[in-house]
Amino acid sequence: MGLLTSSIVIFLIGAIETIALLKLFMTQLSEKGIYFSVEAYNKIIIHIISTIDDFLLGMVLLIFGLGTYDLFISKLDIAEEKSRINTIRRPDWLRIGSLDELKSILGKIVLMILIINFLRFVVECNFEQPLHLLYLAGWIALVALAILLSHGKDIEQTKISKKRLAAFKLSKKNRNKDNQ
User: Fold this and answer.
1) Residue partners of 17: CB distance under 8 A and separation at least 6
2) Burial 131-153 (b: 16+ CB within 10 A, else e)
3) Burial of 80 (C-beta count, 10 Å sphere; 0-12/13-18/19+)
4) Is 92 a residue whose pLDDT tops 70?
5) Where are the alpha helices (DSSP H) in 33-129?
6) What is the C-alpha separation between 114 and 107, in angstroms, rounded?
7) Which among 46, 90, 44 has a CA at the least distance from the CA of 67?
8) pLDDT band at residue 79 using 50, 70 and 90 as cut-offs
9) Which of 68, 87, 98, 160 is deepest in the core (most CB within 10 A)?
10) Which residues have CB under 8 Å from 54's CB, separation 6+?
11) How far, in Å, CA of 128 to CA of 136, rounded?
């Protein structure tokens, strides 16, 4: 319950951050029109990054809270276990089958939070020498590699699922033609 309560608090903080972002945007828009200064633009981007960070952290707490409850205390979808026809179901990404699955999902979200914090750092940083830009390029390459290593298998699974779905729809369409 503590994790679920914490996730609600973090989601509320994200909503407050979104309201602050809108207020900043409207203030800048009324004062300067559609042409923002670099400082104003960077402030808006930092607010957006903070909002994304808050909502991702809320998701981590929500997934971890529901996942640990589902794994260790009681199944959340009791009605679904009794009847497979149930129309209201949790999304697949929120169905945790094992502790390893939970750790994998959480690891990916934590990686995304770290990447978003890296983005915030890049926006706030002043690059004074050309070598700093070279360092930035190297860090971006490492971030891309981290995403590829953590999500590469998921991307392939999504492609396979899409191919299977397309083949299923095609076979269903062919069966309907044959029946007519």
Assistant:
1) 47, 50, 51, 54
2) eeeeeeeeeeeebeeeeeeeeee
3) middle
4) no
5) 38-68, 78-82, 99-124
6) 10
7) 90
8) very low
9) 68
10) 10, 11, 13, 14, 17
11) 12
Q: Which two tokens stand for residue 11?
A: 């989601």
Distance (Å, whole) CA 52 – CA 22? 14
Q: What are phi and psi of 116, to 5 degrees?
A: -65, -40
What is the token pair recorded at 177?
């033609």
Which residue's structure tokens are 């999304």? 91
Q: Contact, 45 vs 116, CB < 8 A?
A: no
Each residue's pLDDT tens digit, 18-63: 999 899 888 888 887 777 777 878 888 888 888 888 898 888 888 8
Mean pLDDT of 63-73: 78
Question: In this structure, are residues 97 and 103 in contact, taking their beta carbons and an 8 Å threshold?
Answer: no
Nearest to 113 by CA among 69, 160, 57: 57
